[in-house]
Description:
The chain is an alpha/beta fold. The chain has two domains: 5-210 and 236-270, Rossmann fold (3-Layer(aba) Sandwich), CATH 3.40.50; 300-447, no CATH class. The chain has 16 helices and eight strands. A six-stranded mixed sheet has the order 2-3-1-4-5-6, sandwiched between helices. It has a two-stranded antiparallel sheet with strand order 7-8. Strand 4 (142-147), helix 6 (153-164) and strand 5 form a beta-alpha-beta unit. Helix 8 packs antiparallel against helix 13 (375-397), helix 13 packs across helix 14 (407-417) and helix 13 (375-397) crosses helix 15 (420-437). The termini are far apart.
Amino acid sequence: MNDTPSNQNLNYQDAVTAVEKTLADLRGCPPKEREQLQADIAQLNEMHEKLTSGRIEIVIFGEISTGKSALINALIGRQVAEVDVQGGWTQQVWGTVWSGAGYRLPSLEKSEIVIIDTPGINEVGGADRAQLAEVTARQADLILFVTDSDLNDTEYAALVELAAIQKPILFVFNKTDLYLPDVRATLVETLKGRIDGLIPPNHLVLTTADPREIEYVTEQPDGKTQSVWKKPEPEISELKLLILKTLENEGLGLIALNAAMYAADKSDRISSLRVELRNRQADQVIWTMAATKAVVVAANPIPVVDLLGGLAVDAVMIATLSKVYGLTFTMSQARSLAKTISAAGGIYALGELANYGASFFKLVTGTLGTALTLIPQGAAVGFGSYIIGKSAKHYFEHGETWGSGSAKSVVKEILATTDKNSVMNHLKDEIRQKLKSNRHSKIGHSER
Ligand SMILES: Nc1nc2c(ncn2[C@@H]2O[C@H](COP(=O)(O)OP(=O)(O)OP(=O)(O)O)[C@@H](O)[C@H]2O)c(=O)[nH]1
Ligand SMILES: [Mg+2]
């Protein structure tokens, strides 16, 4: 990112707009969708606040005991993070404002840098680690990856994952005071090889966040020597400079890019959730209507009524489906689409009707026992509606077209890929249940 400041401002403005637009989209969702997007709305609000206040978040990653917390203390200049010899000290992700950084994003008064401490990467289990990665992907503008020796497998894997997030990473080799100069130089070369292709070599920086005490020997006026053990000052100036330089170079562009990526991600989530919800709603409409028709046919065994009444049920189903897809089909539009689909699939074919017809006529004066034999016929007609519904769904999903095929090819494909037996069995169950609960009304009538 070698943006000029004005370019950065432009990107920044774009990002603010993108986040605001996505937020407006989220708020404008129908209540059902909004319910499922609560967490996204909250996160995006936070992102908006972060963006408009110019809060930059630096997240520190690394194995346990590599000195992540010590590094934060050294950068901030106070003991804000708990440091411990025992590994696994930091248990939660938490942040603190780096007020002494002396950096503000241009034109953003309230701009501040927050440093976020995390537990050691081998400390957290799989699920937590995924959550940690997600939090980082969401919040971090800059990542510090801390190690105190050559990388082990876990560290390398984590580094690769982080590099994939596409955010700037500074690679910190801490505890350099523990190595003799030549060993340290060899380690630096090894580490350069490890990060090759993942992190630019000039993003590798050496630190001593919490140096071990060393012996200071002083000569007294009387010639005697005195020794005191003291902790030298931490060596973190190179890291601090590199952080500030990165922010200076990438500044607004950094958080802008981050926020824009985040908003795009949320937009995708809204669309996929919308597709998923529509899908579910549409299927529910199809099942309900197919079952209704199956029950109507099973309980009123008059084929002519079925033919006319059946088309009405299908038309209602299609009009309802159109609403799921944000359209408003009139009953006559719906009836005409139902006819097109039935014709394309031969769903009301004479042959089939004749099959049902014979038994229907026989059963007009039927008893309870014979009425139950209408179950397969009801289910067969319900299956027809199911196919009509699925075809209409396809039509609506493709923006009121048959996509690349024709009505005929679509219905044919749906017929070929539907498990007829399982749909029929489901519909038969529905009929049995309805007939049982309506025993006194419907079947009571046919018994009389
Ligand atoms: N010699 C030396 N020791 C250090 C340095 N930085 C940290 N330490 C020591 O390493 C130990 C672990 O430091 P922490 O800062 O707690 O490490 P951490 O990465 O936060 O550890 P967890 O929170 O447990 O994952 C402590 O005993 C520190 O004093 C350093 O630069 N040199
Ligand atoms: Mg810690």
